[in-house]
Structure formats: C-alpha cells, structure tokens
Design a protein that fits this description.
Two copies of one chain form a homodimer.
Chain A (H helix, E strand, L loop, with lengths): L10 H24 L3 H13 L2 E2 H8 L3 H13 L3 E5 L7 E5 L1 H25 L1 H19 L1
Antiparallel strand pairs in A: 1-3, 2-3
Helix pairs in contact in A: 1-5, 2-5, 3-4, 5-6
Chain A binds a DNA duplex through α1 and α4.
DNA sequence: CCCGATTCATTCAGATGTGAAAACAATCCG
DNA sequence: CGGATTGTTTTCACATCTGAATGAATCGGG
C-alpha cells in the first residue's frame, strides 16, 4: 500500500485541498456546460430533487450559514435561476424554487455532476469511492444532526 | 451496510459540505487554542515541516491560486506570523518563513490538528480514515501532478 | 390579549477563494 | 546588445464564506 505524503495525514487540511481541486474542476465544466457555478449547482441539485424549500432548509442540508444562503440565492435570483416568495404559512420564512430557466440549468448541471462522479468512481474504484461517500456522509451527519 | 442519503452520492457536492463542517470545527479550536485561522494553519504547518519556501511552492502544495497565497501570506505577515523576503537567487521569487511568533503558533496549531485528527480516527476507525486519506491524496496528486 | 422569547432572514465587516490582466525579473536567442 | 518570451508575484473585480448584530414575524405563558 502506497502511503503518499502530501501534507502528512492531517485530514482537516487534506480534505480542504481535495475539495478545492474537485471544486475547481467542477466549476469549469459547470460554467461551460450548464452556465452555473459549483455553489449554485448544489442549490439547483437540492431544489430539483426535493422541490421548493426554505432558505434555512437549504442551509441545513448544505451546511451553509444563513448569510451564505441569502447571498447565494440572491445572486441566483438575479441570474434568473430561482424565485423567492414569502412563506404564506409563516411570513418569517422565505421559500425558494426553481424558475423555468433554473430547471433547465439544474438538469444540465445534474448531467455534468453525474459525469464527473462517474469519472471519479472509475478513477478511484467504486468500492473506495463508496467508502469515502459513507465516511463523509457519516461525518456531516455527526456534526449537524 | 447503511447507505445514508445526504445529497445522493455526488462526491463533488458531498466533499465540499464535509470540508465546510470540518473546517468550521477546526477554525474555532485553532482560533482559541493557537490564535490562527484554519487557512493560516495550513501555511504554518507547511513551513514548520519543510522550512522556508516560495509563494508559488506554497500554492502548489495547498492547491491555492497565486492571488490566494499572496493575500493569505500578507495577512499572516501583518499578524506577525511570517516574514517575506525576495529570493536573492532569483529576484522574481518571494521566500516566506516563520517568525519566532509564527513558530510558536505553528506548534500550537499542530497540536490542535493532531488532536482533531485523533478524534476523527477514533470516530471513523483508523482503517476507514486511512482509506479516505489515501483516496484524497491520490485525487489531489492526479489533479496537480 | 400582550409582552418577552424564539425563529428566520438580512445586513455588515472582513477573511478567503477565483480568473484576468498588469508589473517585474530573468532568460533566450537572433 | 536588445527585443521577445517566460516565470513569479501582485492588483483588480468579484463570488463565496463566516460570526455578530439587526429586523421582522411567530409563539407561548401570564
């Protein structure tokens, strides 16, 4: 078993580096093929899978702070990707949903992400990729509940 | 085998979420116990392990763009953690090294990172944590050379 | 019914990233 | 020698995060 030493074994540092690498690659392809950024694609993915949601719900699922969600969604609204409306049941809340444009972009982004993910699975092997997904998922759940 | 569905299995999205979670936790402890941020700790770690380096070398090892390194190191210099000097061999380059203060901070940050990492190993199991490290390392190397 | 506590979103200031383009230094080569 | 090219860093404009403070709506116990 090769033990490569990039930055020792400090997972905290390594995961950020890896995330930057992947994110950069994803961002380029998402911009070209779907016209959205990587951050935006996460929101689009969520809305496409789960439908209209609160800002707070988006923040919880993506582990983003409230101000981060506000800014990200506002920029997406300016770009015509999503629509915001006050929650009629509880007017403190704000509901976000895909626009028609946004739905198209979300589907395009989804294809890009699926391709990228398939590439990763191939590069790493399905078994290892699976372990990584499980571990990261477990990690996220343990930190957020 | 439990297959949790946080955000399907799009590793590109999941790794960013996980990185945010870990980074946030690390940042709090690093600020309290070492007086530095998570980003700064990566640079300190590198300089402590490898000694004085070029800005470009730091960027390559941490997968950061040149402007990111310039900004990060400048803030660290303002904070008294590092010292910059022109490379006497090739005056295009800029060498960065730890200050006395920086060395202390680096050692403190190192202890924090070691503790955090030990906690992760315990939570995930050494074998799984090892797989994740190997996979992420492989990934980073394949993207950067 | 009302006021204090809670919840949700926004604003704010600042750290951290990016790509594009400018500023310089070194090197190549005709 | 000198102009073109290459390499390194910085500047710039902007997207993306964070915690802290604020505002707005709801809830719940008198």
């Amino acid at each position: 078993m090769v033990r490569v030493r990039t930055v020792d074994r400090r997972l905290f540092l390594l995961i950020e580096i890896a995330a930057r690498c992947l994110s950069r690659e994803a961002d380029v392809r998402l911009r070209v093929e779907a016209g959205v950024t990587a951050s935006q694609s996460a929101v689009l993915f969520l809305l496409l899978q789960r439908g209209e949601r609160r800002l707070s719900s988006i923040g919880a699922m993506l582990a983003l702070s409230a101000p981060a969600v506000t800014g990200l969604v506002n920029r997406m609204q300016s770009a015509g990707l999503v629509v915001k409306r006050k929650d009629p049941q509880d007017r403190r809340g704000v509901l976000v949903d895909l626009s028609e444009t946004g739905r198209g972009a979300a589907e395009a982004a989804n294809r890009v992400l699926r391709n990228l993910n398939a590439g990763l699975d191939e590069q790493l092997g399905e078994d290892k990729a699976g372990v990584v997904c499980d571990v990261l998922t477990q990690l996220v759940l343990s930190k957020n509940g």
